[in-house]
Amino acid sequence: MTFVSARLIIIDMKPMVRFYEPITGFPMTQSTDSFAELQTPSSMLAIGSTRTLPLVGGENIAKAGSHHSAISECRERID
Fold this sequence. Notes:
The protein has a single domain (2-75), classed as 2,3-Dihydroxybiphenyl 1,2-Dioxygenase, domain 1, CATH 3.10.180.10. The chain contains one helix and five strands; from the N terminus they run βαββββ. The protein has one helix at residues 13-24, and strands at 2-10, 29-32, 35-39, 44-49, 70-75. It has a five-stranded mixed sheet with strand order 2-3-4-1-5, covered by helices on one side. A hairpin with a 2-residue loop joins strand 2 (29-32) and strand 3.
């Protein structure tokens, strides 16, 4: 299994993008108003609004604004 990214589920995208870019020194790529990602040489941080929850398993997977707002995304190779 390979680690792909850490995804944070948040309510308001703009402040989070403004926060992470300067502290990491890497630009965030915001593909929609509901999703942005920051790629570093060794990992990826994805930020998704609550509107992205249906794409990763539904409302019960994570809750924005709580200690349950992070999702670890992994890829498994099946031969």
